Every structure is written in structure tokens, then in C-alpha cells.
Amino acid sequence: MKLLTVKSVDEVKKILIGNFQSIDMYEKVDIDDCLSRVLGQDIFAPEILPSFSRSSVDGYAVNASDTYGASESLPAFLEFIGEIKMGTEAELIGFGQTRYIPTGGMLPPGADAVAMVEYTEKLADQVMLYRQVGPGENVIKAGDDVKKGDFVISKGTVLKEAELGSLAALGINSVLVYKKPVVGIISTGNELVSRQVGELQKGQIRDINTILLSSIAKRLGADVFECGITIDNYDQIFEEASRLLPEVDILLLSGGSSVGTLDFTAQVLEKLSNKNVLVEGIAIKPGKPTLLAKVNNKAILGLPGHPVSAMMIFSYFGEILIDILSGSKDIKVKKICTALLTRNIPSSAGRTDWVRVKLEFDQNSYKATPVFGKSGLITTLIGTQGYIEIPPHKEGLEGGSTVDVVFWS
Questions:
Q1: Cα–Cα distance between 84 and 103 in angstroms, integer?
Q2: What does the pLDDT read at residue 64?
Q3: pLDDT value of position 349
Q4: Which among 177, 189, 356, 366 could bridge 339 via Cys, Cβ 3.0 to 4.6 Å?
Q5: Degrees (nearest 5) of the Cα angle 404, 406, 409?
Q6: Residues 220 and 251 in one domain
Q7: Greatest CA span in the chain, whole angstroms?
Q8: Is residue 386 included in any domain, yes or no?
Q9: Are residues 238 and 249 in the same domain?
Q10: What one-character DSSP code corresponds to residue 314?
Q11: Cα–Cα distance between 60 and 80 in angstroms, integer?
């Protein structure tokens, strides 16, 4: 298989969305451990929220009709009969009476509004009100948030702080979530040795792609199997990939995806997938020799061996794939800032270029400085905050122009 028919970035995104579905496997998890997990059930309120009417301000609980006509020149006088304590049931007030109520305190029977303390004055056993209030003013009524049986959170939602807080408020302490996709990683190359190796022999390099890809997969919400290094030998790569594939949802083969005599990744993908290879290259720099195959609902990605290419490709397309498999219906919005480009960036028409940049804040605006370097130079990523995307119809960007910087996820 030769990398002749490359696809655009948008075409690859459509291929991922059109060919892969969520993994319909679930587990029940305590909400303490549910941050960023994908909800596997619809949530309906088992009770009303809030469970009692409460004050939204510090003030005095009143019957609104006792305040009508009150003004600074003609205040209303009410009998003060005590304070409402937090966490206790409030006692009745009658007409012409009032109790002090803190924010969040339970509205007592007989009261239908709260006068803000800023518009009152307490003198001994009387309270003067300098502004009238209407029924329901400064009050959160029981059930204002949700009624019993109301639909609250939909299946497929990524659980964040607000969702977890709502579950806790409703007394829901565990929920069904989608099981995390499992990513398996195999690094290939005769030159590779473990990253734990101290002194390198001539011609050897430490395997850094495994830790790069593993870190990205975990950050994106997947579990990881690190399978170590396989030499550039078709039989060994195929045997290791065949052994691992049943255990994972995404299989990453790092290295050996470019055209060359020792590049067996393409052959392995063809055989494993029964020639169901979906992508044989992407019109992008870095990362053109990227491969994608499908086995049932499992994805096999052949990634470039150069670490910058592997990292950028998997950060982008891996996030889409993991979101799909994990059941997420939320579309992640990439964080972007505008910045002034500090120098020209050349580019070739017909392909998408991702150029990593360093950002600095100067005179109330961001400045983006492109970082150039071959994709095998991992330290060029240090200190970069994101990248600029140059679309295929442009032949570079001019220094001084305004650009969008996409932050690393």
C-alpha cells in the first residue's frame, strides 16, 4: 500500500464520525470519581429542589401586604419576634410581625417575601421598612429549581462540576457512566530502547512516543495499555498487534507508517482489518503518513514515528475518536485566543499546516512566535502553548497579522 491518496483533515474527521460508535458498556461509579466521565443514563429528579422556600438575601421575612406603601418618608413598622437559624425549621409569623432571616434561611410559615436588610432599621423590638416588597420577592421557592420527576441531565453528558453539584443536591451519590475506552500502544523500530536505559549505544534512541501517547490518552479520558517496543519485523508486529487488539478499543502503532523497506505498519493494518483501511495519509504537516483502519468498532492508528508528529496527530484525532467511543454527545470547543504573529510563516498550498507557537502577553495583547523545527525534535514543544492552523488554501501567513492560536487540549 502506498501513501498516494491522502485525505484532508475535514475528510478524516467525517470518516471518524461516520465509522465509529460509542462503546455501550457501563459501570456504576460514585460521583466523587465521576469528574469528566460520560453519563450512561438519563437523570430525573427524585425530589424537588430546593426542598423548602428560602431567602436569597439577608433581611427580614415578612408578609408582603404588611409592607405596601412603605417608603423612606413613611416607613412600615413591624414587630420583631426573633431570628431564623440556619438548618432549623422556621416558626410561624403573624400579620404585622417579622423575623430576621439570613441568606439561605428557611422562609417561615406566614411569610411570602423578604425585605433586604439594606432597606430596614431595627429599633428594640420593632423593625422599620423603608421600601415595600411584593409576594415572592427575594425568595427562592420550593421546587423553583426542579420538580420531582423533572428531566435533569441527559445520557452522554460529560460530567463537570455543575452536573456533579446538581446530583449531590438531589441526593444521587452514584450513577452509571460509560466505561472508559482502552488505548493500547506499540512502539516500533530497531533503533528504539526503553526510556529507562541509562547509557545509549550508538544508533539507539529512547522510546518517548509511548509516554507521550499514553499521557495524551489518559488526559483525554482513556485507560492505557503500554506494550513496549517491537522491532521492525512484520511477523513480530503482527503477532503483538493481534495479541493486543482484543483487549483494547484503540490500537496505536507508533513508527513505520512512512514508505520504506522496513515499514510494515501498513501491511499489518491491512491484514488485521481485512483490508478495511480508511485513511492512507492526511494532507497535513506534520503527520502526513498517518494510517487508520477499522476492525468491528475498534480503531487502529498507524502514527508517524517522529514524536512531534505523533503527538499532534493523536492529540487532535484521538480526542475525536475517544469522545465518540466514550459516548460523549458534547462537542468539545477548542480554547482559542487571538494574537499578533511576530514573523512570517511559509506554507504549501494544498495541505493543512499546524505550526506550534510560544505566546507572550505584551501591551494588552498576545504575541505568537512560531517555533520551527523538524518533527523528530521533541524539545521544540517545550514552552509552546498551542499551534496555529494554516488552511490548505493559504500559502503562509504574514508577520504582524492577527491569528487564532489553538491551545493544547
A1: 10
A2: 97
A3: 85
A4: 366
A5: 165
A6: yes
A7: 95
A8: yes
A9: yes
A10: I
A11: 9
CA–CA–CA angle 97, 101, 103 (5° rounding): 150
* Mean pLDDT per 10-residue interval, the chain, length 409 residues: 74 96 96 96 97 97 97 96 93 96 96 97 95 97 96 96 97 98 94 85 89 94 93 92 96 70 78 95 92 96 90 93 92 84 91 93 90 73 89 92 89
For 8, half-sphere exposure in the C-beta direction (CA atoms, 13 angstrom radius) is: 11
- Structural domain contains residue 4: no
pTM for this entry: 0.84
- Please state the length of the chain: 409
Residue 145 lies in a domain: no
Asked if 311 contacts 264 with a C-beta cutoff of 8 angstroms, the reply is no
Count of domains observed in the chain: 4
Which residues does residue 183 pair with via DSSP β-bridges, in sequence order? 224, 250
Which cell is 216 given?
495524551
Q: Which amino acid is at 112?
A: D
Distance, in Å, from the CA atom of 102 to the CA atom of 81, rounded to the nearest integer, reads 15
Residue 408 amino acid letter? W
Write down the residue that cell numbers 492552523 correspond to. 389
- The amino acid occupying position 131 is R
Q: Give the strand pairing for 352-362 and 284-285.
A: parallel
Residue 73 belongs to domain spanning? 54-140
Q: Distances from the Cα of 406 to the Cαs of 184, 312, 336, 340, in angstroms?
A: 27, 12, 5, 14
Same domain? 95 vs 230: no
Measured in Å, how far apart are the chain's first and last C-alpha atoms? 33
Looking at residue 320, its pLDDT comes to: 94
Residue 64 domain-assigned?
A: yes
Please compute Rg for the chain using Cα positions. Answer: 31
In single-letter form, the type of residue at position 333 comes to V
Residue 206 to residue 186: CA distance in whole angstroms: 14
